[in-house]
Amino acid sequence: MRSWRITGLMLSLTLTVAGCGGGDMSDLETYVEQVKLRDPGPIEQLPEIKQINTFVYDAAGRRDPFVEDTRPEELAAVVQTNQLAPDPLRRKEELEGYALDSLRMVGTLEQNQTRWGLVRTQDGTLHRVRVGNYLGMNNGQITQINDEAIHLTEIVSDAPGDWRERPATLALTQ
Description:
The chain is α+β, with helices and mostly antiparallel strands. Helices cover 21% and strands 28% of the residues. The chain has helices at 2-20, 26-37, 72-77, and strands spanning 104-111, 114-120, 126-129, 134-135, 140-145, 149-159, 162-171.
């Protein structure tokens, strides 16, 4: 039985190879000859390479750009002028990764004497927030939630080391 299979396979392989050869290829040979006889034509000029002006850094009297500048008189000028500043060690909440104008308040919910605000992100995810939560990219902490809006206080920088509070509102959208 096995020998018949091998014989059948060899016969079909032989017929396949025999069927591929012996065709008339005179039209292909004629086309190749015509292409070889064509004039190659002119070669396009290369585009002109623009010269770039070089700059040599002369460090005479200047600070080294690759070394951190820690002059005490400049560091003293950046000292905070007020005590208001965001806590850099506070763990960021998920909604602080979204710009405030990309968030939409879609409703409220009251559960166990706690009022929750329902906020939808641009990708359609619904989040539940309450007073004390943070949202937006400017350290915005929720101060009040009512049926019409979520009120928050953002901490924004006016200058290096100078911070101020700014009220913001996320209004209910229909």
